[in-house]
Amino acid sequence: MNRKRSNTFWGYFFIAPQLIGLLSFSLIPLITTFVLSTLDWDGFQPATFIGFNNFSYAFHNPDFQKALVNTLYYSLLTVPMGIFLAILVAVALNKVRYRVMYRLFFFMPVVTSSVAVAIVWMWLLNGDFGIINFLLHSLFGIKGPQWLTNLNLVLPSLAIVSIWQKLGFNMIIFLAGLQGISRDYYEASMIDGASRSQQFWKITVPLLSPTTLFVTIIGIIDSFKIFDTAFVMTSGGPAKASYTIVYHLYELAFKNFQFGRSAAAATMLFVIILTFTIAQTYISRKWVHYAD
User: Residue limits of the ABC transmembrane type-1 domain (predicted)?
Assistant: First the structure.
């Protein structure tokens, strides 16, 4: 009995740091945000309880609507293409020589500061003296567009930066998924005369579907949290063409000092992300295949 109690004590002792971190940095802030969303507070004067008025304001606010549409569009640009490219790179690097070195090169942008990445890409995408437009003009005689000031190109430009930076992370996840696929499937398909492309679409892609589900959920959550890239590269412009939900939260809280309204918008963002995650998990039953 004493040994059982001792094991229980040490078990809780070792998971205590994780539990404390979860409470301190996740659960308590989440509850605090919901409570704050029911208050009218500017950070200086005493808070006033106003119920769900902040949610009504956010729902009818044109800026929130614009930010939501931009964020959804950005997510549609980044998640599918990012997953597709990550699968191709993972398959290409799965059995190649010096694959550790290649994986390192692809993963380096993931651990690089987002601000540093944004500054470098601001120079690359500069419409007047950027290297991308220089190469377009030098190699193809094409006059490059204003990537970061064109209303139709600014979000795709930010999506390119995000796909490039997150490619290494998704690639590592898919590489781990590839290691779990038995070679027996490929050997049996080779006996049946399957080509490489048939093996990819009929074996690799279906058996990577659990990994694809995970990367999709993480990618959607990450795309809805875009802020630093838009803040550094475009400041939400031009004409709020790159104005995202998190940027909207930032302006409400730290420019307008409307903390209650910002918290309400953050709570709505949490509900939107949760809804997408639950829906994706439910729909995945139809396309996710697990190997026997």
Answer: 68-280
Quick one: angle between helices 154-179 and 62-93, nearest 10?
Answer: 40
Residue type, 112: T
CB of 64 within 8 A of CB of 265? Answer: yes
Calpha distance 17→228 (Å, rounded): 29
Contact 146, 103 (CB under 8 A): no
Cβ atoms within 10 Å of 39's Cβ, excluding its own: 19
State pLDDT tens for residues 14-42: 889 888 988 888 888 889 999 999 999 98
What is the rounded (10 degree) CA torsion for 182, 187, 189, 191?
-160
Q: Are 259 and 171 in contact (CB under 8 A)?
A: no
Amino acid at the residue 267: T
Query: What percentage of the chain reaches a pLDDT higher than 90?
Result: 60
Res 291 pLDDT > 90: no
Residue indicated by tokens 């795309």: 223
- Closest by Cα among 82, 162, 155, 75 to 118: 162
| pLDDT score of 185 | 87
Q: How far apart are CA 249 and CA 265, in angstroms?
A: 7
Report CA-CA distances (Å) from 127 to 74, 136, 139, 234, 280. Answer: 21, 11, 16, 13, 38
Q: Is the pLDDT of residue 1 over 60?
A: no
